[in-house]
Amino acid sequence: MIENEGIVIKSIDYGDSNKIITLFTISGLKSLTVKGAQKPSSHTFNFAKEFILLKYEDRGKYLIGGKVENYYTNIVNDIKLTKSALRIFEIINMLVEHINDTKTAYEFLKQCLDLINQKIDHNLIELIFRIKFLYLIGLSPNFNSCVRCGSKEELAYFSLFDGGMKCNHCKDIKDYHLTNFEFETFRLLYLVKLDKLIEKIDAINYQYDEMNLILNMFYSHFLGFESSVEKIYKKINK
Ligand SMILES: [Zn+2]
Please, what CATH class does the domain formed by 4-71 belong to? Predict the structure, then answer.
């Protein structure tokens, strides 16, 4: 019975004919060897493609049966959509050990890939993933009270490197803080429900470059994470 399910986020050659795939599943990352998957004529060839939703059966380190549930064709065929998916995969791959609830993370990943594949604004979905992922690793930004004294009154600004609001009494001119527009966007993308996104999408006003920069700083400050995918794409675009 083929009952397990995962998304192939990485696939590398192994030996003359095999591949090793990394799947993200409801229980986290899983690596499996797929015999013969380098040969296009092999029945296992399709099971080792990146960006597929795979039902699989495994024994030990080996994949012994599979069925591709979704090829995410639009993501694979459009370099811009691919970039957004790769930035999401990269975060999962590098930060998986921080995830508190891998089942929720898996369902969330699937929902994001479906939306990107449906050609719903891929930049927006990528940003929403990167913001909401903070919740999944216990790094929720604090929007409702002062991070220093806990007060809910006279909140002055969102301090990026303190990860939350500061009140008028605790504010510090040295803080790097978000402008009102940046803060409103940040909070909106954090709180928006993905299943309600399509009906609300026209009202979401955001600047990709600005939010990308803020999130890069946040991830770098709290997690020491820098995106290699972004660097590679910048080189390609030069
Ligand atoms: Zn305060």
Answer: mainly beta
